[in-house]
From TrEMBL, chain A:
SUPFAM superfamilies named among the record's database cross-references: S-adenosyl-L-methionine-dependent methyltransferases
Cellular component terms per the entry's GO annotation: cytoplasm; nucleus
UniProt-listed CDD domains: AdoMet_MTases
Protein name: tRNA methyltransferase, has a role in tRNA modification
Domain Methyltransferase type, residue spans: 55-138
Bias type Polar residues, positions: 200-222
One GO process term, biological-process aspect: tRNA wobble uridine modification
Gene Ontology molecular function terms on file: S-adenosylmethionine-dependent methyltransferase activity; tRNA (5-carboxymethyluridine(34)-5-O)-methyltransferase activity; tRNA binding
Pfam families named among the record's database cross-references: Methyltransf_11
Biased composition (Basic residues): 173-187
Species this protein is from: Mortierella polycephala
From TrEMBL, chain B:
One Pfam entry name: Trm112p
Name of the protein: Trm112p-domain-containing protein
Gene3D superfamilies the record matches: 2.20.25.10
PANTHER family documented for this protein: MULTIFUNCTIONAL METHYLTRANSFERASE SUBUNIT TRM112-LIKE PROTEIN (PTHR12773:SF0), UPF0315 PROTEIN-RELATED (PTHR12773)
Family membership noted in the UniProt record: Belongs to the TRM112 family.
Biological process (GO), any one: rRNA (guanine-N7)-methylation
GO terms assigned for molecular function: protein heterodimerization activity
Length: 299, 116
């Protein structure tokens, strides 16, 4: 399957799954990275032609071309590789003018913010750049997920190991779909949690920083820049490299990324707390809670 | 579309001023719906001023009143906002002078910790 995509770039955004067969891993990889989720696809396809949208945390940009009649701007760090409009930025401070967009999507992003306040702030920031009447689709990881991962239902804040592909090789031989660190991690059986000993890899410094309150929201864009192919590594800030100097030499660094696993109804609660949006639709899909909001006010 | 988002920089932070720009023309499909939608979103004066600095003189100084139905104008707009890409350069905030670099066509809008 991976050969079908001419621009098959291993994405560091793939969350490493535990205890999966190679086939499952391959499937999940392709699914995560290249196959648009049906709910998202449907959302984008029902947007009127000519609408302008923001994909906040766009990853490799898989949603940006779903509906060619839309004009979508992605922010993160690697979507530029597919030739879409993209930029690198932070999720709590989007660089857009207020109310510029007709709609926005935020897929698998809000769950990386470390406190309820930050999660609300992230939603508010998205709402700020969308016009009144505009719609926003949000996906977050569910605590209740029953798919490949079995999380302790009492622990909502977890670290999930996450493999990054090797640092920038300009060669096209990166067609291997799986980051090389996969094998190393098969040994691990348990998900580390905030309460437990999460130092299972030598590379969780980013996470430690997060705990110290220096969390970079939307760390996807920031951390991935250090290992994505050369066309985008240039977009990173010097500070990013400083955070992870020891990873540069490793074949496939493994990070433990912070996730807040959302309980049923929790996402909607956060949205309603902003007082700026109403909820049009909500659901559960692919281990995620999702909802579609309509911005109702700026105040 | 972009504005400076350094904390506390909330006045005169638009448009970002382009410097040392390398442009690239790339053909794009004409999307009339998009262009018409953009008419209401554009800060037209800022677009014209920015274009002039890049030596693009095609846009009329003021937006024609019949812009949405003015095919010639929409074609020019299409060329300027969809087909003209900034391959590299800098965007400088007119207020706080923060510099955002553009490399390989991708602006880096990240801020340092103290600027967020």
């Amino acid at each position: 399957m991976s050969q079908k995509n001419p621009l098959h770039i291993p994405s560091p955004f793939r969350v490493e799954a535990i205890d999966m067969t190679p086939e499952q891993k391959e499937q999940e990889y392709v699914h995560n990275v290249y196959q648009p989720w049906p709910v998202v696809e449907e959302f984008l396809k029902t947007m009127p032609p000519g609408f302008v949208g923001a994909d906040v945390g766009c990853g490799n940009g898989k949603y940006i071309g779903v509906n060619p009649k839309l004009f979508m701007v992605g922010s993160d760090s690697i979507c530029g590789e597919r030739g879409h409009e993209a930029m690198v930025c932070d999720g709590l401070a989007l660089p857009y003018r207020p109310e510029f967009f007709d709609f926005a999507i935020s897929i698998a992003v809000i769950h990386h913010f470390i406190s309820p306040e930050r999660r609300i702030a992230a939603i508010e920031e998205i709402l700020r750049v969308v016009r009144v009447g505009g719609r926003v689709l949000i996906f977050v990881w569910a605590l209740e997920q029953t798919g490949k991962r079995d999380f302790d239902k009492n622990v909502q804040d977890v670290f999930v190991p996450w493999a990054m592909p090797k640092k920038a090789e300009p060669k096209k031989d990166k067609t291997k779909s799986r980051p090389q660190g996969v094998k190393r991690k098969d040994k691990k059986k348990d998900l580390p949690s905030l309460e437990g000993d999460n130092v299972t890899e030598p590379t969780n410094r980013l996470v430690t920083n997060d705990n110290a309150g220096q969390q970079h929201s939307m760390t996807e864009g920031i951390t991935s820049a250090a290992s994505t192919p050369s066309t985008t590594t240039s977009t990173q800030t010097p500070g990013v490299e400083e955070q992870i100097p020891e990873q540069k030499e490793l074949a496939a660094p493994v990070y433990n990324r912070y996730y807040h696993l959302f309980q049923k109804g929790e996402l909607e609660d956060l949205v309603l707390k902003t007082n700026k949006a109403s909820i049009l639709q909500q659901g559960y899909d692919r281990d995620n809670w999702w909802c579609i909001l309509e911005k109702i006010s700026n105040a | 579309m972009l504005q400076c988002h350094v904390k506390g920089c909330d006045a005169n932070n638009f448009p970002l001023e382009l410097q040392e720009v390398v442009l690239e023309q790339e053909e794009a499909e004409f999307n009339e719906d998009f262009l018409k939608n953009m008419l209401g979103k554009l800060e037209y004066e800022a677009l014209v001023a920015t274009s002039l600095k890049l030596d693009i003189h095609d846009l009329p100084a003021t937006m024609p009143e019949d812009a949405a139905y003015n095919d010639e104008f929409l074609q020019i707009l299409h060329r300027v906002i969809l087909e003209t890409h900034i391959k590299s350069g800098k965007m400088v905030c007119p207020n706080c002078q923060h510099i955002y670099n553009i490399r390989d066509g991708i602006p880096n809008m990240l801020l340092a910790e103290h600027e967020v």
